From TrEMBL:
UniProt-listed Pfam families: ABC_membrane (PF00664), ABC_tran (PF00005)
Keywords (A to Z) from UniProt: ATP-binding, Membrane, Nucleotide-binding, Transmembrane, Transmembrane helix
Gene3D superfamilies associated with the record: ABC transporter type 1, transmembrane domain, P-loop containing nucleotide triphosphate hydrolases
Transmembrane spans: 49-71, 112-135, 141-160, 220-245
PROSITE patterns attached to this UniProt entry: ABC_TM1F, ABC_TRANSPORTER_1, ABC_TRANSPORTER_2
InterPro entries xref list: AAA+_ATPase, ABC1_TM_dom, ABC1_TM_sf, ABC_transporter-like_ATP-bd, ABC_transporter-like_CS, ABC_transptr_CydD, P-loop_NTPase, Type_1_exporter
Lineage: Bacteria, Bacillati, Actinomycetota, Actinomycetes, Streptosporangiales
Protein's name according to its UniProt entry: Thiol reductant ABC exporter subunit CydD
Residue intervals of the ABC transporter domain: 315-539
Compartmental location: Cell membrane
Main location, first listed in the record: membrane
Length: 540
């Protein structure tokens, strides 16, 4: 059993586990009793035993129902607990959490409702049956005892092979998906260069590889159940044939023989079913693994309660190193930087240099593995994260707009703001002109994801948002990338007003935006290169 499964099992309250175990044992006992009654009734042609037989079978069914009820409730309880923990958690990965919270965690149902009861049955039933067989006919009991371990052994062997094949299948599916996305994104370019024929060949080859992997995995899956069936059938035959011969020779009573024949398959059944249940629960185990991963992730810095003044702060990065989980190298390595109060520092560097990461660190959204960020001398890690974020204005590289009115989109910076302040912010961000030109002005409702505004307008709305938020610290992440010259000029004009009298860090490439900065720092591969002085900073 993997660690995840053990941990998942550990989430079940002990009393539920005990209850399920007792129920499984009671079902086993009833099964053995029913087999005995059946053998007696048939051998003795005794109809008087039939009501008892019916009662035993019915009792077993009722117990199975109660057991599934208990397991289902426990599953719901565990899911609720996990969801609460995920909701409460400060884990930074919002995307993964949403999937888990909504649909993902329901996948653990088969684990609790199917796999766990079956696991208990597999623990309880074979010993019960073997014990009864020892009492009835020890020779048969020995055969069962010897062949019983073959089922799990073959199951594990086949399972390992299936896991390897399924892994290959997943890998090829990922490759196919990634390649397909690239091709679709670059379709117009490919057409222009007459390379569509080649690409369809590549997609066909990848699809063929995926098809082969899938059918391979399916073949193994079907073969595996066949192998297990065969092992069980042969084992039962090993018991049945001698019993038949001894019945013929009169070396064994009919009722004993019947009892052995009825009981023997029941010893293998739970083990065989366990394999199927295990496969059915695999998705849930994967979902649980993901949930545990999110829960175990180091919490997003929530910080302490240190309070600093509300003025325009000085920000100092002291040998900050950031490493993303799963990444090889460091995104930022020993970056030291001092941004004086009211200073505007531009960050340049090639893509992947760590510019966005630098801004995220200052925003307190990514925690460095070593080094410190000091705000007016106070470590960011000791500060109240919510209060700090309230003092920040943030214009991301690709700001998100919501399917709401333009005014509400700007109001995200300060939900309580009246329309006059919204208009003022838009004016400062040079967004007023195009908003006024829209069909219903500030009341115009944008499409899903902000459809209906251009990239430049989107950036200016984000600047207006930051303006309305009005904190003393501004973080701008390449706000003019992909803008035409006119939009750029408008945005820079708006940004200039936004940055006035504030401490600012802006990621910039183009000269227009760089002109707003007092100093330029160049990042390369997560390290600060020799600073290039454009002009003297206000307080370097
Ligand atoms: P820039 O903004 O300069 O293009 P980033 O700060 O976005 O660079 O990224 C710096 C490095 O960190 C890159 O190598 C990037 O691949 C990696 N990186 C960025 N975000 C993540 C993330 N969430 N998880 C893992 N690696 C990341
Ligand atoms: Mg970036």
């Amino acid at each position: 059993m993997k660690g995840v499964e053990r941990r998942l099992l550990g989430l079940l309250p002990r009393r539920v586990l005990v209850a399920l175990g007792v129920l499984a044992a009671a079902q086993g006992v009833l099964m053995v009793v029913a087999a005995g009654l059946l053998a007696e009734a048939v051998a003795g042609l005794d109809a008087g035993l039939l009501p008892w037989l019916v009662a035993a079978v019915a009792g077993r069914a009722v117990l199975a129902w109660v057991s599934s009820l208990v397991a289902g409730r426990a599953a719901a309880e565990v899911k609720r607990g996990l969801r609460e923990a995920l909701l409460r958690g400060e884990a930074p990965d919002a995307g993964a959490r949403v999937t888990l919270l909504t649909r993902g965690l329901d996948a653990v149902d088969p684990f609790f409702a199917g796999y766990v009861p079956q696991l208990l049955a597999a623990c309880v039933m074979p010993p019960l049956v073997v014990a009864r067989l020892v009492a009835a006919d020890w020779a048969s009991a020995v055969v069962v005892l010897v062949t019983l371990p073959l089922v799990p052994v073959f199951g594990v062997l086949v399972g390992m092979r299936t896991a390897a094949l399924t892994g290959r299948q997943w890998a090829s599916l990922h490759r196919l998906g990634g390649h397909f996305r690239d091709v679709v994104a670059g379709l117009s370019t490919l057409r222009a260069f007459g390379r569509t024929g080649h690409q369809s060949g590549v997609v066909r080859a990848l699809a063929e590889e995926h098809r082969r992997a899938t059918t391979g995995a399916l073949r193994i899956a079907f073969l595996s159940s066949l192998v297990l069936e065969l092992v069980c059938a042969l084992s039962v035959a090993l018991v049945a044939v001698p019993v038949g011969l001894r019945l013929l020779e009169g070396g064994m009573g009919l009722s004993t023989g019947l009892l052995v024949l009825v009981l023997t398959p029941e010893a293998y059944l739970p083990l065989r079913a366990l394999g199927a249940r295990f496969h059915a629960s695999a998705e849930g185990v994967a979902a649980a693994e993901e949930a545990f991963g999110v829960l175990d992730a180091p919490p997003a810095p929530s910080g302490g309660r240190a309070v600093v003044g509300e003025g325009v702060p000085e920000i100092v990065l002291d040998r900050v190193t950031v490493r993303y989980p799963g990444a090889d190298g460091a995104a930022l390595e020993e970056v030291s930087l001092r941004i004086a109060a009211g200073e505007r520092v531009a960050v340049t560097g090639p893509s992947g240099a760590g510019k966005s990461t630098l801004l995220l660190v200052v925003a307190g959204l990514v925690r460095p593995v070593s080094g410190r960020v000091l705000v007016d001398g106070v470590d960011l890690a000791d500060m109240d994260a919510v209060a700090w974020r309230r003092r920040l204005g943030w214009v991301p590289q690709r700001p998100h707009l919501f399917a709401a009115s333009v005014a509400d989109n700007i109001r995200l910076g300060d939900p309580g703001a009246g329309l006059d302040r919204v208009v003022e912010a838009a004016r400062a961000a040079v967004a007023d002109g195009f908003v006024a030109g829209m069909s219903q002005g500030y009341a115009t409702v944008l499409g899903e994801g902000g459809a209906g505004v251009s990239a430049g307008q989107r950036q200016r709305l984000a600047v207006a948002r930051a303006y309305l938020a009005g904190g003393p610290v501004m973080l701008l992440d390449e706000p003019t990338a992909r803008l035409d010259v006119r939009s750029e000029r408008a945005l820079v004009e708006g940004a200039a007003r936004l940055l006035e009298g504030r401490t600012a860090l802006l990621v910039a490439h183009r000269p227009a935006l760089l002109s707003l900065a007092g100093r330029v720092v160049r990042l390369e591969g997560g390290r600060v290169e020799v600073p290039v002085g454009l002009r003297e900073g206000k307080a370097a």
